[in-house]
Amino acid sequence: MEDVSVWLTIVGLFIIFSIVGLLIASKISPIVGMTIIPIIGAFLAGFNFGDLSKFLADGSDRVMGVVIMFIFAIIFFGIMQDSGLFNPFIRFMILITKGNVIIVAMATAAIGMIAQLDGAGASTFLLCIPALLPLYKELHMSRYLLLLLVALSASVINMVPWGGPSARASTAINIDLIEFYLPLIPIQGIGIVLILTLAALLGFREKKRIDKKMATGEITKKDEVNIRAIADNFTQRQHEEMAAAKEQPRDIKGRNWANLLLTVLVLGTMMAGLLEPQYAFMIGVAIALPLNYQGVDNQMNRVKVHAPNALMMAAVILSAGVFLGVLNGSGMLEQIALAAVAIMPSFVIPFIHIIVGIIGVPLDLLTSTDAYYFALLPIVDQIASTQGIASISTAHSMMIGNIIGTFVSPFSPALWLGVGLASANMGKHIKYSFFWLWGFSVVLLLCAVLIGVVNF
What we know:
By secondary structure, this protein is mainly alpha-helical. It is built from 21 helices and no strands.
């Protein structure tokens, strides 16, 4: 029996290290790695096709709700973005800055939060960077401050259920997505207050830097910054992008107000537990399509536009179901955890989830998001559970510690898009933002411990 346990531990580690290593080296896609390697490992461990079929069925069952939710949530928020729901708010935020550096920094944070509501980092950078970069240039503000504030704001809002990290974490510990998310709402509230505070402080620091350069003659102050022209340019660009689309939204008075009401109802129904998230968004899409687009062809064409993003994340989650189904069903994960507990100093074990959470941002520079949540989290959860620590507490700790570093990691394709749009340098962005983001994540994790979201 002991030999079997040792072999399960070895094979389990082989599966995890192979997937993590190949993902880090970009030698394999998450879909291929998390499907093929666990199946090979199951056969190496001595399991047959009947066992494998059970593992795969169990893994698929635990992720199916999240998969459906992702598909319809991404399509729903894509339609809301296409309809211009958030554009008036962004224009308003640009106008109220009035060229004040501190207010611009705070407005940047607010715009980043609103833009990230669709859970897609790429669309956040596409919306925020072109809209705000001209304003930063006019005021001589650093483009790296712009990237930092958008990255930080998007990271905190990305805790929403249709954001990748929450879906991955809840899948890894096999817990209902809304049950996982609800305790995070106070943390998001605290995070928003901290972001706006930090934005004000960084804005004040930026103003001093600009004033100093003006005093030495390195830069010259312009008589007047035309904020309205910048806001008008943003509006014009959004209109041009909407006009370039083959399918045009209905020209109905009050359509955006109807979209806002629909969004509130969908989120409220989901949060109140009246409907499972996947069904709330499914119904939301079914209403949003005819509300915003006329004719079946137009409606289905808008679905096709957003389908690639939706299906990509769905495929990754389904592949993770295979990986987790094999590791849990075979007992490999339990044996790895028992082996780790046996060699780990006893005083570390009760705090293992907090320790890993504290180094979550640096880990974002060393590993991919999928590897962090699907390979590392289950092991830490198994170790922490030997001390009676709830799985949800472990997952919260690791996610809060890690999620702030999402857009400082070179593994994030959305960040490369943001850096490109800002005409910035990835290395300089990491140097400028890393310690601010890491410090922010540690403070937010400490807040989570203080209010009881994370226990030990």
